[in-house]
Write a structure and sequence with these properties.
This protein has 129 residues and is of the alpha+beta class. The protein has one domain. The protein contains five helices and four strands, in the order H-H-H-H-E-E-E-E-H. Strands 1-2-3-4 form a four-stranded antiparallel β-sheet, sandwiched between helices. A hairpin with an 8-residue loop joins strand 2 and strand 3. This is EDR1/CTR1/ARMC3-like peptidase-like domain-containing protein.
């Protein structure tokens, strides 16, 4: 997955230093370099859930993949809707199922919205800023 690969330094660095500090330092360095608070998203080399969700949304918009950038409490995430039949592929009403896209652990996995797994995922990656 492009977003995870591009911002993968996050996982390498978080084992060796304070992850919040590393991300803040990286963003501060970019603000100083560009002399503005508006940082081109393509220049981020580190990123947590918020940065990954934003980059994923931009890529989806450019490739015409419908997705939603969401914020729930201190958690940022992307949500997609999948349409399908409830039971058999040829019978039954068409239903919409909503999923959170995992951009942190099992990148690309779809986590059913409103599930215990989704609650755990959002709680684990709350933004600490």
């Amino acid at each position: 997955m492009t977003v995870s690969h591009y911002l993968s330094n996050w996982h390498l660095r978080q084992k060796h230093c304070n992850s919040k500090h590393a991300l803040e330092y990286h963003i501060r360095d970019l603000i100083k370099k560009y002399k503005t608070n508006f940082i081109p998203i393509g220049n981020l080399k580190l990123g947590h859930q918020c940065e990954r969700a934003l980059m994923f949304k931009v890529i989806c918009d450019q490739t015409k993949v419908p997705t939603t950038l969401c914020k729930q409490g201190d958690s940022y995430f992307n949500e997609i809707s999948v349409f399908g039949n409830n039971t058999d592929l040829r019978k039954g009403p068409l239903v919409q199922k909503r999923f959170i896209v995992d951009l942190m652990e099992q990148v690309g996995d779809l986590i059913p919205q409103c599930s215990k797994e989704a609650e755990s995922y959002l709680r684990k990656y709350r933004t600490e800023f």
